[in-house]
Amino acid sequence: MGKLSWFTAGVIAGLAAAAVGQELARPPEDRTWKGKVAGVPYNFRVPEWGQIANEYWNPASNKVVAPHAIGLGWGVNFAAVVNRVRGAVDSVQRMVEQSSDSTTAARPGYSQEIPGPIERWRAGRVRAVAPQNASALAGSPRASRLPGPWRRSG
Questions:
Q1: Closest by alpha carbon to 137, among 125, 126, 128, 123?
Q2: Which residues pair with residue 40 across a beta bridge?
Q3: Which of 6, 44, 45, 113 is the most buried (most CB within 10 A)?
């Protein structure tokens, strides 16, 4: 194992030992085997299968990261991740539809113009054309802008 793996394993073992020590320091009737140590949640009680499933897929919760059903640390709620991705995709689709609706409604016979930055990008692409393709640009007004060895003369 690399140094980072050893360090990570040491931190996890230290947190687990601290959590167990924290529980053993309490009187037996007050031990819950669930809590936080150094801000990291732990749960050493044996859960039901439904609790384990809810840790990784809980559509009722918007939390992406939730405490593990058993063990130390956090688990990912993939249902919340899917909901957030769907929401982002839906909002982008609405923005695209609104922008295309407002543009086409404003001008009947609308034809989309190429914005300046894209036209400049295209011009840059012409400058980066390979020497064997430079002859195809000989009659083009952009041919005079080709750099050094790619510039066609005559």
A1: 126
A2: 37
A3: 44
